[in-house]
Every structure is written in C-alpha cells, then in structure tokens.
Design goal:
Layout (H helix, E strand, L loop, with lengths): L8 H23 L3 H20 L3 H6 L7
C-alpha cells in the first residue's frame, strides 16, 4: 500500500509550527498538574508532527484536499 503525499508547502510549515506550540502547551500544562489538557495537547502535537514529517494527512485524503506543490 502506497500513501500519496497530500501535505506540502505552507501547510507543512503551519503543521510544524502548531506541533511546536502544542508541545510547549503540553509541557506547561503537565507542569501545572493539568493532565487532561497536557495529554490532549501532546496528542495534537504528535499528530501535527507526523503529518508534517510524512507529508500525509488522512483528513486531507478523505476530503480530497492536496496542498503539495506539483
């Protein structure tokens, strides 16, 4: 099974930035003892980071969106 890339350009940069911001939010929340907020932010950060690294987003695929520069 081959996964076609559907994330590129600015979309990839935005996902990378969101992953970084959510990582900071997760760390700050966990330090304050807010486990639920910290874990949700960490999960979001991980999701955006995986999208940015693999250049694939399942939601984009389901909606037929392709932001790669071809």
């Amino acid at each position: 099974m081959r996964i076609e890339k559907n994330v590129g350009g600015r979309d990839r940069l935005v996902r990378t930035a969101l992953a970084a911001v959510l990582t900071v939010v997760a760390i700050a929340a966990l330090e304050r003892g807010k486990r639920t907020t910290g874990l949700l932010a960490a999960a979001g950060a991980l999701g955006f980071a995986v999208n940015a690294v693999t250049c694939f987003c399942g939601l984009n695929a389901a909606l037929g969106v392709d932001t790669t520069d071809e």
